[in-house]
Amino acid sequence: MRPDYGDTFATSVVSLVPLFLAFLIGQRYLIKGFATTGIK
Fold it and tell me: Where do the TM regions start and end (predicted)?
């Protein structure tokens, strides 16, 4: 009996999508903060 990779892949994608969206939103604010304050 081999594992069903489709279900495993779907579960991992569903769990990674919110993390990826949070990373994109956080990256936008991080770059905006660097641009306004300047990097010393």
Answer: 12-31
Tokens of 36: 């306004």
pLDDT at site 16: 96
- Per the structure, the count of domains in the chain is 1
Q: How far apart are the C-alpha atoms of 23 and 17, rounded to whole Å?
A: 10
* Structure-block tokens of residue 20: 């990826």
Domain that holds residue 18: 1-40
How much is the average pLDDT of 10-35? 91
Angstrom distance (rounded) from CA 31 to CA 8: 34
- CA neighbours within 13 Å on the CB side: how many for 31? 5
